[in-house]
What does this fold into?
Amino acid sequence: MNVRAPFLLLISAPSGAGKTTVSQGLLNACPTIGRIITCASRAPRPGEVHGVDYHFFSRAEFETRIAAGEFLEYANVYGDWKGILKESVRAHWATGKDALLSVDVQGAETVRRVVAADPALAGRLVTVFITPVSRDELESRLRGRDADAPEAIARRLDMAEPEVARWGEFDYLLMSRSREEDLSLLRSIYEAECARSARHSFRWSASQSTPCGS
It folds into this structure.
């Protein structure tokens, strides 16, 4: 018999490095990990569903939750609050699943600080930083998306430099190549962390097959 303590996997990267794509790939590949849903203080847009796309709160309720210390990480974005509830992590853990969170470098710093100060979360965070090998490579990807004006691309590149400089704050550095290679490397990191002996309560028993990450 084996029982494994679930953990929080945090992925960060400069804009355009592919963290959203590789995160979704990991979720699709491994049923043992679940996506954390972001909270927002704005009204739902057409087609958005509460509890699926976001958890939608009024500004007053959001700020009450901030004051109560319920958020793992939060920020005011163009006048609206966005954040991640600690309870969203614990809800996945209660079902035996790991939790996946994708945030920017500043958000990762906040999450590390909050996790370290919370006995229920401490020791259960794994962080991965994804980056292309060079500024030129990131610029090529941003231009290839054909989604931003040249001025916006320049701003993203300027923002990326100080973010990449903080790669040493993370547990793992993933040098981004292709989508397939990035997913393979991330899955290897995830499975290695799942196999870490400190997370397990193991007793010898009859063999059984287990899914990715068990």
Summary: Residues 109 and 169 are 9 Å apart (CA to CA).
